[in-house]
């Protein structure tokens, strides 16, 4: 007997009536047959043809047998349930893969009479290709729209769920790295893409979506069909507003509520007030206006970083020209290509201003750009930044000092980083902080205003001085002390590593011009200090002189201290205050490691402290200018002006040289003469110098100048 024979009905009197009634029911035999098949799958049966010997060989002892559950005849209810499941399984179609059905399903959440939310399929569709499948099959649709209504029946929210792998793949390839900005705007990207509210990302990339073609030809038809559905949903959700915006945008006008349409995250935006391009990260309507978050490229003295900043366009009631906005998308600029070219060149120049650079401003003169020092001394909090990665730090810096080293050398301020990409050059800020040497202050300066410094060739030729002294100075310029920071002459510490030159002589004899020429010859910045700028107390002198010498050493600048007579006077027991000033001054000179010039006109009176001579490596004396020297100074002063604006002969210069005037006043008189020439509308001539000599009182001053 097989296992299924146990379920065959027994033909006795007690069961015949029951069996006949069961046989009379329609479909009963079919249900029983189905149930038998299910049992046969669960409990496999032995083959009846198997030999008894084979069966005997498989017998086990009683102790080896596991208890077999007692089999009972199934009830009528169980048979009916099994038959119902079999019927449902036969009627259910094979499931469709997730997101592969090229249709859109809209689900509405509404409240019933008892105030309970209920999710139903919408009876109103925006496309004709929508059917009503079973609720458990919604994920098979490429998109599902979920709308929520309040108790009054007003729509409160709308969510678009994209299940289609084709659409998600299209967005991933189209958006690229811009995906992160839409994720921040609550747009997810994984197996499911969720867009809340207005489908901004669909509007922003509708052109790219329309032109998108998948890499696989097998996906082309489904992708295009689903993209059409997605764009149809976007047009449906925006309604008539979409047509209205096209009309206004075509005329260059915009309303406040449409600002999000022209500002697409990931695009470049132009700022007219700063003449900069920035990378748009995200946007958001806030109470005070439309907030935009941007990224720009900033150099912090060590590396180039992307720094975020926010900008708000305040709300406005009427339409406004797009060109009048405080921020304009680059795509809507009147000349985007020309702007790109200009800002890329400026970004390249900004990149070259890393480290320490001496540049020239048309109005401010010589400027030292040293961002690292400015940030170190500035009290302003620096914004948070993201470093632009070029690989490891070893690869980031390509200067000789860092080649083969993983660490940046703290004492070297001229590290050369790898070239910025063209996009990063576009994003560079338009200003940089520089130290104006003529004013001795840090100022924010526009990058395009700074130009490379044109150093004068052989400036020593312009100095009117004794040839033997000039030769001595030329020999000094060849010394390594002017280039390497000095050689220590002391036994301890860093004392005596500087190079100090004392220039003494009457006013206007060329001491300052000499130092200017030396700095020009060495192509170094000139840091000029007046004695009165250093303060009146020893504490002020320590602070101001120490800071100035620190900057000069860092920039390898030539330092000039003029009118420092109060610090050079001999110390005495009676004047403790002046002694403290002189001590502070001398102490700073001891530890200075650069090149320092000091000028004075009191040396001949014996009014210079002896301690200064012990610290001065070279002392040069200047005498009053003779006729030949004054003639050369006159010629040099006139040479500053264009040749076509000057009408002077050699005889005129000979006549000017007869006036017993020092070099500083010669320069002043020349400027006055040029002003008179411009006022008269002619070239600079001798008559203008005659008038300038009278008005300047030079003849009176000359009486008190001894030769």
TrEMBL record:
Compositionally biased spans, kind Basic and acidic residues: 1-13, 38-65
The AAA+ ATPase domain, residue ranges: 497-625
InterPro entries per the UniProt record, alphabetical: AAA+_ATPase, ATPase_AAA_core, DUF7025, P-loop_NTPase
A Pfam family matched in the record: AAA
GO molecular function: ATP binding; ATP hydrolysis activity
UniProt region (Disordered), positions on chain: 1-70
Coiled-coil intervals: none
UniProt keyword annotations, A-Z: Hydrolase
UniProt feature, compositional bias: Basic residues: 27-37
Protein name (Swiss-Prot/TrEMBL): P-loop containing nucleoside triphosphate hydrolase protein
Organism: Choiromyces venosus 120613-1
């Amino acid at each position: 007997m097989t296992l299924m024979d146990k379920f065959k009905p027994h033909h006795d009197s007690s069961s015949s009536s029951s069996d006949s009634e069961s046989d009379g029911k329609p479909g009963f035999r079919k249900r029983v047959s189905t149930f038998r098949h299910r049992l046969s799958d669960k409990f496999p049966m032995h083959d009846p043809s198997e030999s008894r010997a084979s069966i005997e060989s498989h017998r086990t002892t009683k102790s080896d047998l596991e208890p077999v559950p007692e089999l009972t005849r199934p009830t009528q209810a169980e048979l009916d349930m099994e038959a119902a499941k079999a019927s449902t399984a036969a009627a259910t179609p094979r499931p469709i893969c997730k997101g592969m059905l090229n249709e859109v399903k809209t689900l509405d959440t509404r409240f019933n009479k008892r105030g309970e939310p209920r999710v139903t399929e919408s009876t109103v569709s925006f496309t004709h290709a929508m059917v009503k499948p079973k609720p458990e099959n919604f994920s098979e649709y490429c998109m599902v729209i979920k709308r929520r209504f309040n108790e009054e029946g007003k729509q409160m929210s709308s969510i678009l769920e994209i299940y289609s792998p084709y659409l998600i793949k299209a967005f991933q390839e189209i958006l690229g790295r811009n995906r992160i900005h839409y994720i921040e705007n609550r747009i997810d990207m994984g197996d499911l893409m969720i867009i809340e509210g207005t489908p901004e990302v669909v509007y922003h990339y509708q052109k790219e979506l329309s032109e998108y073609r998948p890499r696989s030809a097998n996906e082309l038809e489904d992708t295009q069909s689903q993209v059409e559905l997605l764009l149809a949903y976007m047009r449906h959700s925006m309604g008539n507003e979409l047509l209205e915006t096209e009309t206004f945008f075509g005329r260059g006008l915009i309303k406040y509520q449409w600002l999000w349409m022209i500002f697409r995250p990931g695009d470049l935006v132009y700022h007219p007030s700063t003449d900069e391009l920035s990378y748009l990260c995200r946007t958001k309507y806030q109470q005070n206006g439309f907030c935009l978050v941007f990224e720009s490229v900033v150099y912090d003295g060590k590396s180039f970083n992307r720094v975020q900043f926010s900008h708000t366009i305040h709300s406005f009631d009427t339409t406004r020209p797009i060109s009048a906005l405080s921020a304009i998308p680059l795509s809507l600029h009147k000349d985007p290509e020309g702007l790109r070219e200009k800002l890329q060149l400026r970004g390249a120049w900004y990149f070259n201003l890393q480290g320490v650079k001496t540049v020239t401003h048309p109005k401010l003169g010589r400027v030292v750009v040293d961002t690292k020092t400015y940030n170190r001394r500035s009290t302003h909090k620096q914004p948070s930044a993201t470093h632009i990665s070029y690989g490891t730090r070893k690869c980031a810096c390509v200067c000789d000092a860092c080649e083969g080293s993983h660490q940046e050398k703290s004492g070297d301020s001229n590290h050369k980083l790898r070239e910025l990409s063209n996009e990063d050059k576009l994003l560079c800020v338009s200003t940089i902080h520089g130290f104006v040497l003529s004013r001795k202050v840090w100022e924010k300066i526009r990058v395009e205003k700074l130009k490379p410094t044109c150093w004068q060739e052989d400036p020593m030729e312009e100095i009117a001085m004794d040839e033997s002294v000039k030769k001595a100075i030329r020999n000094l310029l060849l010394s390594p002390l002017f280039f390497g920071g000095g050689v220590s002459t002391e036994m301890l510490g860093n004392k005596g590593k500087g190079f100090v030159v004392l220039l003494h002589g009457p006013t206007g004899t060329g001491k300052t011009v000499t130092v200017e020429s030396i700095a020009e010859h060495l192509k170094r910045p000139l840091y000029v200090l007046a004695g009165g700028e250093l303060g009146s107390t020893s504490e002020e002198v320590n602070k101001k002189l120490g800071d100035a010498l620190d900057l000069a050493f860092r920039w390898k600048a030539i330092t000039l201290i003029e009118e420092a007579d109060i610090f050079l006077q001999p110390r005495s027991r009676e004047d403790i205050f002046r002694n403290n000033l002189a001590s502070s001054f001398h102490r700073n000179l001891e530890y200075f490691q650069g090149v320092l010039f000091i000028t004075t006109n009191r040396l001949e009176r014996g009014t210079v402290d002896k301690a200064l001579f012990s610290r001065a490596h070279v002392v040069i004396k200047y005498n009053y200018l003779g006729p030949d020297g004054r003639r050369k100074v006159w010629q040099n002063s006139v040479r500053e002006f264009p040749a076509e604006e000057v009408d002077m002969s050699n005889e005129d210069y000979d006549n000017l040289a007869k006036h017993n005037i020092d070099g500083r006043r010669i320069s002043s008189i020349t400027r006055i003469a040029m002003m008179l020439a411009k006022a008269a509308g002619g070239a600079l001539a001798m008559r203008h110098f005659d008038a300038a000599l009278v008005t300047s009182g030079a003849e009176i001053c000359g009486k008190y100048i001894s030769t």
